[in-house]
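Please decode residue identities from the backbone states below.
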């Protein structure tokens, strides 16, 4: 889950803070979180972006029907369903879940109907079933890759291994040549907080695989759309973060020292840089302990 709100609270006068929270409680009947803001934008050719608060999904419209992606939640999906019916005179044919996480995959039932197929990676479906997730369970799954055809258009689905959650895939809309990835590539903003549910090395490997693919436009599940240069810059950030945390840990630095020492000024323009750099460092540190057992390495001498 991602909230990219600026940190207003830090230097705020207490009275203003009180007034703001009172305001928030007064409007809360309408607030339903930030997801009350819905928007559809045509991004390139027949590919559109659906925004619900800080969440985004993509869809493609063809004469043979519509391929939608993450429903996001029940309210967002109901809004999307109405808009698709109002704007386009073709049926919804497929709904593809990007991965298992419920802040993107919930709301599936609101898009369900006759002739609509739900698609996900085998591991994403398995997780939704085993965790008794309250959404439409996919009826089509795949392991490595699969292509959905609609008329002359198609969506290439690919699994790149672990990166975030279970069974997270990329979606390549053709012939528009638009790539859609959720959570493990984020443009214009720092990656989310302490990387809970992420695998940093897998994020790097998967992003390299995306960069090896030909695409003109990238749409993410959060933050900005962009092009290949933007994705390459994101990969450079991941590598700089990973390398600096790994090297600091190899030098025996504890987490507090890593947070005090590591600065990545080349990326300070990314939104939430000041707020989340320490959390990103913590996320990589914890992953290196959990996945690579850095706490059990006899060749690393702790120093303070
Ligand atoms: Zn997310």
């Amino acid at each position: 889950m991602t909230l990219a709100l600026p940190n207003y609270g830090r230097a705020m006068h207490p009275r203003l803070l009180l007034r703001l929270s009172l305001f928030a409680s007064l409007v809360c009947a309408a607030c339903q979180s930030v997801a009350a803001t819905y928007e559809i934008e045509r991004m390139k050719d027949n590919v559109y972006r659906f925004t619900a608060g800080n969440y985004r999904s993509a869809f493609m419209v063809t004469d043979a029907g519509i391929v939608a992606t993450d429903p996001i939640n029940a309210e967002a999906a109901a809004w999307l369903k109405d808009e698709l019916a109002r704007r386009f005179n073709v049926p919804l044919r497929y709904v593809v879940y990007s991965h298992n996480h419920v802040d993107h995959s919930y709301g599936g039932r609101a898009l369900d109907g006759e002739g609509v197929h739900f698609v996900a990676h085998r591991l994403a479906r398995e997780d939704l079933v085993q965790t008794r997730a309250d959404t439409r369970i996919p009826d089509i799954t795949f392991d490595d890759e699969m292509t959905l055809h609609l008329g002359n258009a198609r969506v290439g689905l690919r699994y790149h291994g672990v990166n975030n959650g279970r069974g997270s895939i990329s979606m390549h809309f053709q012939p528009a040549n638009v790539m859609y990835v959720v959570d493990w590539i984020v443009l214009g903003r720092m990656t989310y907080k302490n990387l809970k549910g992420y695998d940093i090395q897998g994020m790097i490997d998967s992003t390299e695989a995306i960069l090896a693919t030909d695409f003109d436009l990238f749409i993410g599940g959060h933050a900005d759309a962009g092009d290949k240069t933007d994705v390459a810059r994101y990969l450079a950030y991941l590598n700089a973060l990973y390398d600096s945390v790994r090297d600091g840990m190899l030098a025996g630095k504890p987490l507090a020292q890593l947070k005090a020492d590591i600065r990545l000024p080349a990326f300070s323009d990314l939104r939430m840089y000041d707020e989340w750099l320490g959390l990103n460092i913590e996320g990589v540190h914890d992953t290196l302990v959990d996945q690579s057992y850095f706490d059990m390495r006899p060749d690393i001498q702790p120093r303070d």
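Observation: The chain has a mean pLDDT of 90.
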